[in-house]
Inverse folding.
């Protein structure tokens, strides 16, 4: 039996700093020093964010000399996409109702 993840994908993306780290890594693999340079927080704080993202299997790091290079694993984000897609039916319904109301209002004016 596999060990339970400490953090799930929803917890991992709940923080704006972690979302920005994911965004940075979506463009290219980065060393921790390059990631840290984008934030006004300490390296230690960045490492904590990277740990949470790693525990959610969204990123992984590989030693390259004295640095650790991080890269994105976007597959777990599908869990969020699947969850959100369920609610699209409600948005679509609301937009259809709005369209209907606007069109009926325009018909009344004519």
């Amino acid at each position: 039996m596999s060990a339970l993840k400490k953090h799930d994908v929803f917890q991992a993306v709940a923080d704006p700093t972690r979302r920005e780290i994911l965004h940075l890594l979506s463009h290219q693999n980065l060393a921790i020093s390059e990631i840290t340079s984008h934030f006004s927080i300490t390296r230690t704080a960045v490492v904590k964010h990277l740990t949470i993202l790693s525990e959610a299997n969204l990123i992984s790091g590989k030693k390259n000399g004295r640095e650790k290079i991080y890269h994105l694993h976007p597959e777990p984000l599908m869990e969020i996409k699947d969850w959100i897609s369920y609610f699209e039916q409600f948005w679509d319904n609301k937009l259809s109702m709005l369209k209907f109301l606007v069109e009926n209002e325009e018909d009344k004016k004519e």
